[in-house]
Amino acid sequence: MNSKTEITMKDIAEALGLSRSTVSRALQGHPHISADTKAQVMDEAKRLGYQYNAMAASLRKKKSNTIGLIVPRISRYYQSAVITAIQNRLHENRYNLMICQSNESPEIEKELVDALFASRVEGLIVSTTLYTTDFSVFDIFARSGRPLVFFDRTPKSYPAHKIQGDDYKGGYLAADHLLRQGCRNIAYIGGATTCSIYRERYDGYRDALANYGIVPDEEMVFFHDLTPENAVKTFDGILRMKKELDAIFAGNDTIALALVTHAKKLGMRLPDELKIVGYSNDPLTDVVNPSITSVEQHPYEVGEQSASLMLGLIGGTIKPGKNYISVTIPVELVERESSQKMADTVII
């Protein structure tokens, strides 16, 4: 059994001849405590081995200064860029960030929502899984009055604050670009349609084709988890059908990169024989050969907007009343080598 007695603020106060309240404020960096007193308190706390009990403090103050964040996959460029922006903005305002990963599992997502709520986070920021259809799991935050903000993958019918990209326009820009490059047989590989962003990207793709009098070939449209393995399998399946194919619109850059690599292994000349456009403007798209045309989503702005909205809701500087705030971040197409039009291409 550990016989050591836990060091408390009272011990620091007695050692320095200060009141406990002064020590408490000094440890929290209160502006009314002098720099000299703060330094003395911090030095004595270190000497005695004092450890700040954040959980106990949050129970006393009913304030944890911690925000929960749930994302599907931390390893993806878009999500990691958003996380960085959220972390930076929260840190500027003396808030901590508790990051969780759902691994695209609605079951894990629900467990994380419950765990973060029990951990007394002051608010929750979420990008849902591909397969989330029951948003009632988030009701626990709404009922408690703790702010809830969705970003990127947002619910369409569930009432909530949202920061999202213009995925319809992104899909339209990508397909329209390929059409302007002379392509007419354009395959689409997107994520599961249970996820709003892939439905909207497909709608944009479909409407761009419609402007050219083209109806999407159902055998050239695919919806599945966007992994490199699935992308290669789908690509090989298209080639086995021996259909005319002059372009692929990839639902994200992870599979766009996989498609470029696989096409080169097959000896295909890009962009002469096949043009490829991705989505999210991953930095890797600019360094591969050929570099990949992609849709820029501005993830850092998405993260900053998500964190700023959360801070405003917590601090009361944003008072939406009975309405919910919805912000759409513009997207743009970044043209690169993978979709270049050859000089002798004739558009009919």
From TrEMBL:
Record's keyword annotation contains Ribosomal protein: no
Domain HTH lacI-type residues, every copy: 7-61
Highest taxon listed in the record's lineage: Bacteria
Keyword match rRNA-binding: no
Keyword annotations of the record: DNA-binding, Transcription, Transcription regulation
GO molecular function terms listed in the Swiss-Prot or TrEMBL record: DNA-binding transcription factor activity; transcription cis-regulatory region binding
UniProt protein name: LacI family transcriptional regulator
